Amino acid sequence: MDFSVRIPFVELLGFKLLRMDSGEAEIAFHPSGDHLNSFDVVHGGASMTLLDVVMAHAARSVQQDQGAITIEMKTSFMRAAKGPLLASGRILHRTATLVFTEGSISDATGKLCAHATGTFKLVPRLPTGPGSTQPLNRISTD
Q1: With contact defined as beta carbons under 8 Å apart, do 35 and 46 qualify?
Q2: For the chain, how long is the longest CA-to-CA vector?
Q3: Model pTM?
Q4: Residues 69 and 124 sit within 8 Å (Cβ to Cβ)
Q5: Whose CA is closest to 27, among 80, 100, 90, 74?
Q6: How far, in Å, CA of 103 to CA of 70, rounded?
Q7: 78-118: per-residue pLDDT in tens?
Q8: Which residue in 50, 46, 28, 26 sits closest to 36, CA to CA?
Q9: DSSP symbol at 34
Q10: Are 126 and 76 a contacting pair, CB within 8 Å?
Q11: CB-CB contact of 81 with 113 (8 Å)
């Protein structure tokens, strides 16, 4: 399944969107040597990005014409993440403009490596591409 929006950093990491519907999302990540820390396990920043992206996609899954901006995120690491990883995200609660989510990362044996909660603000997606009156997909950060 293709990501519905282009996220260059996600492309660089090589995330693969497996599912995005009904308030849930799943993303596969096959880390390479470039994604490891000095202990030869997945860097915490890569894991946090994976959690952020899977929770944002869960948040967007019920209204895909909206963008989701991270407002806050709390992450707990349970064990070192190695090898192929699967991230799962789901909506816990949704208001008109905010979505409260949780996400987890499991290794190939199904062991939980990390868990996060996150709050996302829903924003309208701006038109992009040829013929658009707004060539950049920018939003106000104020």
Answers
A1: yes
A2: 49
A3: 0.89
A4: no
A5: 90
A6: 13
A7: 999 999 999 999 999 999 999 999 999 999 999 999 999 99
A8: 46
A9: G
A10: no
A11: yes
